[in-house]
Protein 1
Amino acid sequence: MQFIDLNAQQQRIKDKIDANIQAVLAHGKYIMGPEVKELEQTLAKYVGVDYAVGVASGTDALLMPLMANEIGPGDAIFTVSFTFIATAEVIQLLGGTSVFVDIDPDTFNIDVSKLEEAIIKVKNEGKLNPKGIIPVDLFGQPADYDEINAIARKYGLFVLEDAAQGFGGTYKGKKAGSLADVAGTSFFPAKPLGTYGDGGMCFTNDKDIYEKLLSVRVHGKGTHKYDNARVGINGRLDTLMAAILLPKVEIFAEEIELRQKVAKRYEEGLKDVIKTPFVKEHNISAWAQYSVLHPDREKVMAGLKEEGIPTAIYYPKPLHLQDAFVNLGYKYGDFPVSEKMASEIFSIPMYPYLGEEDQDKIIEAIRKYA
């Protein structure tokens, strides 16, 4: 049994993927070929925004909007500690300061009741300039964007949606990627919409941000290749990665539906023995991961391993306790919810083509060891 079976999907669309790869090899436009533009237009329409910019990775999809907003030393960006390092890493790379906020224990997303407190505290201290918020759509469920955007407007901050795991999810009828001033997602192979390598995309309705993203993506390009309007990066999405994604987009909506069925089956089989994920009524999760909580997860995971069932922990150590962020001065106890979740959480196999027989085996094993 695999944690995520990419091959099952590949068998469905292999002919189309092969044909698209051969088309790229034939036209030879390996950098910024026509497939990149086609993917950008297709996904902008899917998300419901005016502009999309294909980039080299999910990390660049977060870094580039911060560069477009000219984040640098002295700037504070509010985000969560319970996430993958890329969310906060991009802030540090630009010399900005990550200000962590604890999470909601039910959704694992930023706790909006604590967000405004954190902003007020930074403003009152007067050492940093509050500039933006990066909510994370953790495990596939969008954060509370109505409340987040209202707080951002109140204090003059921009919002960058980290939709690396949320792409395909929905918040009050709107797609993840369209929920903030700008959004970034990832096409890492294991993501709900993944390519066979690295890739990502930014989404926005703001023409000014869009034009800056286009510039940043190609070394700060101005009017032509050797006119540099700003310092940028090499953040381009490879043509081959875009070509591989195009057939995947065609079946993506169906796969999101299949993920709902897998999640529902888990919920029905596990809710009385382990803490299963909570999805708000107005949300649809993309189910990038199916993460559960148990006070003695090591015992349960060991039992599952004996049965040949793979598991993973997202995330065993919150960012505020990582050596990479020791300069921020946080300590154990600062974010109790994040710390508790990190000590109890683990993820079980989740992908659209997880068969009922395998799923029943997983449910049975968890019921046995939980």
Note: The longest helix spans residues 6-27.
Protein 2
Amino acid sequence: MGLGNRENSNEGNKYVGKIMRLFAVNEFSEYVILRFQHWFVQNRDKNQKDNSLENLWDSTIGTADGNFEKDFNRVMGRISGSTIGAGVAANKGVSARLEGKSFWMIAASFLLIGFIASYIFTAAFSSDAIFSLIMPSDRLELTDHYVKYSDITKLILPDGTEVSLNSGSTLIYPKRFIGKKRMVYLSGEANFRVTKDNRKNFVVKTADVYVEALGTTFNVSAYSDDNKVETTLLSGRVRISSATESFPSIEITPNEQVVYDKASRRLIKRVVDANSYISWTQGHLVFQGASFETVIKKLERFYDVTVNYDLSKYKGKNLYVKFTNSESLSEALDVLSEMISGFNYKISGKIVIIY
């Protein structure tokens, strides 16, 4: 879907606009959508894309339904640190700037693809990573699964590998594995029970790390809005390497974990209780010395809410706590209020204010 050099031409504006309109009003296969996304996230033809998306937005926003507005507000809230229309400013130390992405490029994820998972997908993976997955064969068909907040989904991959996919997660994989490796792409958190195949290693690719295994059970947490990626091993053996750095890979054994720190770009190996990191597969949340920010993020996904709070007030607090699927949101917050001095909260629909 190469467009050539049309940056300053009227022809380019018309050409890009035509592509945008096609994707706004038609259904396409997953393969075509991925090819479109590869082109869409590139900087090429940026001005034409912005102009076309602004026109599409103007013509669509008047007829958008309540679900469109809700989904759009959720994503914009996570980018800017607040929820549009909520009337409450979040203070999480997150800049309100869009970090180089125009408003229209973000809005287009909803306008063109039609559901929130596509935004998460384009945010989590570089266009090169997407292209490397879809280019090996034009006949390669892809399947993607997005799990909304408060839900958990179980999947069986084409090779028999069992996957539990956590809330707010997207998994992309081919309908059949070809080539020398079985590759899947993950944004979010998943637990894998890999079917052994000595001829084809199983590889989980995220935006920051690659996890390679033969036959094993492991958990990968790689949410795009988290500051780290965690790979935890329950059985077998896996090898973890950076997707962006050239330092040596790390192998781990059961009850070991590798943490990739996005800020320092380092891989750190440590011993953990692996079972506590897969408690979510049973509908529970277990935290052993987790930061306050980590606990809140997981509660947001667990209960499908947006939490606004002053991070500076709770920075440095590490929590040891367990929540079960039988506890309501207010009951979980009551537990935190008992553990943390000066912790108060207010729930208004899908918005929680901590003060």
Note: The chain has a mean pLDDT of 75.
Protein 3
Amino acid sequence: MEKVISGIQQIGIGIPDVHKATDWYRRNFGMDIKVFEDAATAELMLPYTGGKPHDRTAILALNMKGGGGFEIWQYTSREPQPADFDLMMGDLGINCGKIKSINVPGTYDEMEAAGLDILTPLEKNPAGDYNFFVKDLYGNIWQVVKGLDFFKKKTPSSTGGVVGAVIGSTNIEKAKTLYSDVLGYDEVVFDMTATHADYEGLPGGDHKFRRVLLRHSEPRQGGFSKMFGPTEIELIEVLGRKPRKLFEDRYWGDLGFIHLCFDVQGMDALKEDLEENGFPFTVDSADSFDMGEAAGRFTYVEDPDGTLIEFVETHKVPIMKKIGWYIDMTKRDPKKNLPNWMISALRFSRMKD
């Protein structure tokens, strides 16, 4: 089977209180569809957890406007650790998650009225589109960007799910080997080296940066590709200072953005492509793993600066858990979208007050 990349499935967020965070994201970002909640032991991530398995609880939340989900992740066998320094833009790792909005100025007004910690003015990015940056309750920074596509337009929130990430790099051309050549982000929306007005207010945002915004020219295919929609990767390289690794001397799952996860089919073909380009799997569940209510195979690679990228080949998807309705993805054409009505049934898993 050839590789099929359906889109960004989720961004992983290490937090200290999984239920408090889930409620905050539901109320403020509209991430109100609970796909699963699972408490288990992370036994396969030993290269990134000090060589020992650790217990954790994870919740995957989606937004019916589309985009990827939030994998909200909490250690339960140890205290999750913060970095021992303050993040500055351009540090190595995921600096910001990107969430889409149906109306960026309107979302800015809503979040300002709600008292959220907005870091930057409403400003245009180098492509000429409005965007702004906001902190969540644990200090993670989110960029609100113009949505290019929506699965459902009429939802409780003006924002949708994850459409990408801002990733710190020491060598953008080298990083493009992974993001452009393998993952298909072949369209350069902008490539600008300057100080940037829309970074004013961000930590370290007054430095000079090379910013490269990448999108995929070919529409994504696969079961949930309509739900995930078009996505983007923004690589940033800070000039005039040496960036630090955000997870230096810490574990995967500690506080902050822990990974960016892609939904794929044809994992073996993807493995071959990645290895040919110098990105071997550092973790591979190989056989089917079970996350309680979802099953499949997951793998990890590191980008050239150590940022963790996850791939999940989903075998079983819960649609309506209450009646035991799951989809066996192994029996479907890997390039074919699931019917809209079927994905829309996820709304029955909406979390409410």
Note: Residues 4-349 form a domain with the 2,3-Dihydroxybiphenyl 1,2-Dioxygenase; domain 1 fold (CATH 3.10.180.10).
Protein 4
Amino acid sequence: MILDRDKLNEVLNVIGTAVGNKVMRVADYVCFRVDKENQSLVLSSTDFHAYLSIDCGSFTQFFDDVPEKFLIEYRTLNSLVKNSTTDIVQIVGVDDSHIQVNTNGEYIFSKYLAIEDFPSADFVQESFVTWPVPLIQSTWNKAEVAVSRDVTKINYQGVYFDGNFVSTDNRRLSVIEGDEYDGTPMLIPPIFGVILKHCRNEIRVGINSSSNLIVIACDEVGLLAGVRLIDAQFVNYNHIMKLMSPAINITVDKQSVLGAIARLKTFTDKLFKVVQVRVIDDGGYKLVMNIENKDTGQEIIEIKEYDEVSAPYIVDSKYHLENMYDGLAVTESSEDVEMKFQDDGKLWVTEDRFTYLLANVQ
């Protein structure tokens, strides 16, 4: 069979999202399923946490020189296709153990012989909800900003969906209010967001009725994916949200504060990432950020709006610098950002349906 090389390269980039597993050798392979009668070629991959398949029939010419199903090593094939300069890629069956791939030259691949090891995509979703990709991508980018990188805290390693999109690492909290939802809450792993990056126009999302999977379909790219949900209890974030009671609200220029944080990051290292934040009245309210490590740095930013919500409170707290940057950076506005300081040191960043909480460093 003959495939368009550019299209094949795009497909391999997508299914590479779910390749590799330290235990299962078959996860290093890409599965080709050929249906010459219906002019269908489906490429699939799995790391046994996610399963991806893409229909490539629209850019494939079929001949009788290729088996109906075979597995070849993903990384070698992907590198070969990416570094070739031909317009097409020809794939030919050699014998029961080998596949020949022709681009600029002729390359022989050993097939993975235990084909039955590769799982099938038996997705039976209860129902689908349709989301525009730009909307869900923007929502996901905000939601995942507080996902924990600590592998020992499994209940913090995904985005919780109960109508709202929520994540936390126990030091910060990100919440995006969604529409009313009466389905089953789910804890979605970060690979969902990686798959989203390869989707266009709109996606359909549903829950697999026979196993703990979220099913993603994108007709625009011929994608069908199943992602295993995280089996863990999420925290009661609604209780935390009810405790929001800012004492001081300020509005600052977004690019100024992000630029200041980026410069202050120069003075951090792997162990020290703390910035001291103060609000002062020096002939006008100013936001002052200090960092003291081996070297020191200070940034002063004009405050555009200052609102003392409750009794007088002096803002003087320390925060994780990178976590502070992340919460401010994902806001939609390109001009201003609102920062709300609570009298116990907590910092809230709010914009429309988005709320970000950053606890102070003691």
Note: The two ends are 63 Å apart (CA to CA).
